[in-house]
Predict the 3D structure of the following.
Amino acid sequence: MHQPLWLSFKTHYLDKHDLTVEKIYNSEYSHSDAYVVAEALAEFDELFQRFRFCHIQLIHRTIGLDAKSLKGRGVDLLNEGQRVKFFPELWEIRNQMTDAWGGTYGVVRDSIGGH
């Protein structure tokens, strides 16, 4: 499911407009349509992670975390899903920007409108 979404985003927002995730979030940041869609994808990713967390808590509360699920698989499989991101590029850019800006603490980024 997430691959078709990413490919559509890449085709219609990145490739079509010669953009990268870095440009959208940093060097050409303008709160453009591409940025809004990227944030919607990140939110989708985040909400799915919340669902996974709530599901794990439900399993913990009902059958326990060390039990096998009704399908015979260990609950550890659910925990592994917590580490999976649908759109890792949208999360990695945050790491990159934080690392790059680390040497400029206290410096305020110019506003979008240039005011």
